[in-house]
Write a structure and sequence with these properties.
Helix 1 links the parallel strand 2 and strand 3. Helix 3 packs parallel to helix 5. The chain is α/β, with parallel strands linked by helices and 248 residues long. It has one domain: 2-enoyl-CoA Hydratase, Chain A, domain 1 (Alpha-Beta Complex), CATH 3.90.226. It has a six-stranded mixed sheet with strand order 1-2-3-4-6-9, with helices on both faces. The chain has a three-stranded mixed sheet with strand order 5-7-8. Helices cover 46% and strands 15% of the residues. It is built from ten helices and nine strands. The termini are far apart.
Length: 248
């Protein structure tokens, strides 16, 4: 267990990684570093055969902590871009099955945990969005490439260029969500899915996943040194302020 993550042994080879940076799992460089470190650790643990990512709150993750981000200087902007890229790359490249249990919002940076996972379970109230354009920033390279790999062109266009979210039914139709269950069933269904995946031959699963994702993972890793530049533009702080005030 770390400051913002509770790692639980869920039995049958499943480790449950519960995000608990209240109230909405808003992302910061330090939080992203903790998530990356835990995923990397679990990926190397031979006793772990599947990973389940869940939230301790009604919201899965609201994305970047805008209150903190609005005060970022150039160095902090580079640090958060680097943290986002490394965290998402580690998750996308994880050789083990990863299941996501989603309720409430998985917005902006929060959605990439869903897109990078292997199986997604959600409740009817869940929403899924890429709000970066609304807060005046573009996409870090790893986030962009994961979105391109996991979303159909028209869903990519609608989500990324409008900044407006999909409701759960839309997300299921788009293939962002695999299973929709009631709130009282979410954790049970997600755990059952993780246990099913954990029973598969581990080496074969890792090899097949690498066949699907390995080339893109290598390309993204190679691009990281060139993508540590500042993130904001002349419009960013004003756009973040509007969103924080409920006007964006």
């Amino acid at each position: 267990m770390t400051e913002w993550i509770d790692v639980q042994d869920a039995g049958d080879g499943v480790s449950k990684l519960v995000l608990q940076r209240g109230p909405v799992n808003a992302l910061t460089p330090a939080f992203l570093d903790e998530i990356e470190a835990e995923i990397a650790r679990l990926a190397q643990d031979d006793n772990v055969r599947a990973i389940l990512i869940a939230s301790a709150f009604r919201t899965f993750s609201a994305g970047m902590d805008l209150k903190e981000a609005s005060a970022f200087d150039t160095e902090s902007q580079s640090a958060v871009v680097d943290a986002l890229n490394r965290c998402y790359l580690t998750l996308y490249s994880c050789p083990k099955p990863v299941v996501c249990a989603v309720s409430g919002g998985a917005i902006a940076g929060g959605l990439f945990f869903v897109l990078a996972s292997d199986h997604r379970v959600a409740t009817p109230d869940a929403s899924f969005g890429l709000a970066e354009v609304r807060v005046g920033v573009n996409f870090p390279i790893v986030a962009l490439e994961i979105a391109r790999a996991m979303l159909a062109p028209n869903d990519l266009r609608r989500l990324m260029q409008s900044g407006q979210p999909y409701r759960c039914a839309q997300a299921a139709e788009a293939g962002i969500v695999d299973v929709v269950v009631g709130p009282e069933e979410l954790q049970q269904e997600a755990l059952a899915a993780a246990r099913r995946l954990a029973r598969l031959p581990a080496q074969a699963y890792a090899q097949v996943k690498a066949q699907i994702r390995g080339a893109l993972s290598a390309d993204m890793a190679a691009a990281l040194p060139e993508n540590r530049n500042s993130w904001f533009n002349d419009e960013t702080r004003a756009a973040m302020a509007r969103v924080l005030e409920g006007q964006g």
